[in-house]
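Our working data are protein records whose layout never changes between entries. Getting from the letters to the C-alpha cells is the skill we practise here. To make this concrete, we reproduce a full record directly below:
***
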Amino acid sequence: SSAASDVYKRQYFDKVTELEKMNASDQYILGWQEGYQDAPEVEEQRVTDAYQAGYEDGKNNNFDNVEKFKD
C-alpha cells in the first residue's frame, strides 16, 4: 500500500481511538467513521441524531458535536 494511504489509515484509527476515549456513543462513532470515509449514509429509518451528527463531523473531519452524544 502507498505511504499516503498508510498515513490516512493511521490518522483514521487515531481519531476513532480518540472518540472512544471521549466516550462518544456507538452511533456517533459509526456515523463519524462512515462520514470520514465518505460512505453513503445508512437508510433514513435507521439514522439516529447521534449517527447523523457523527456523519457530518466525520465528513468535515472534526468532532464538533461529540459532546452532545456520549454514552
User: Anything to note?
Assistant: The first helix runs from residue 3 to 21. The two ends are 35 Å apart (CA to CA). The chain has a mean pLDDT of 93. The CA atoms of residues 34 and 55 lie 6 Å apart.
